[in-house]
Specification:
Layout: H1 2-12, H2 17-40, H3 47-64, H4 66-75, H5 78-88, H6 93-96, H7 124-127, H8 140-147
Helix pairs in contact: 1-2, 2-3, 3-4
Amino acid sequence: MPPLVGALIVWALRGYGWWAMLVFVALLVAAFVLPPAGDLLGGSALAIPVALLIGAGGAALYARVAGVRSFVSVLAVAPAVVLLLFLVVSPVHTLVLPSEATAVAGPRQSTVPIVHVVFDELPLSTLVDADGEIDAKLFPNFTRLARASTWYRNATTVNDLTATIA
C-alpha cells in the first residue's frame, strides 16, 4: 500500500512530482540507514539526522546518475520475487501449501483441559526458598498454582534471555 500511495502522490503533484519522488527516495534510503546508524552511534539522537543526510545523498545520487535509476527500476520487482521465493521455495511452503492430509495420532479432542504457561525471563531462583520449593510467603499465588497443577521446576525455555534491540 505505501508504494501505491507514494505513486499517487507523485502523480497528483504533476509539476512537482519529480521533487516528491526525490523526497520519497531520500526517506526510503534514510529508513534503511537508520537502524545500522543507530547501532553504530549507540542509539543516540544523532542517528536520525545522519540517516536523513545519507538519505539526501542517496536521493541526489538517484537524481544525477542514470545507472542508479535503472538499478532501482530493476529492483522494483524484488519484493514480489522475494515473497514468491519465501512462499514456494522455503520450508514455509509446507504451511502455506499443505500437501495431502496426514493422519493425527490420538483423539481429535481431549477431555482434559491443558494450559501451558511459560514465564519468560523469570529465573527459578527468584521464586524458590532454600529448600528449592516455591516461597509461599513471597509468592502465594505461584504456590497455589503449583499445588493445583504439574510444575516442571527444572524445565527451561529455549533461551534464557530475550534480546531487545535499542
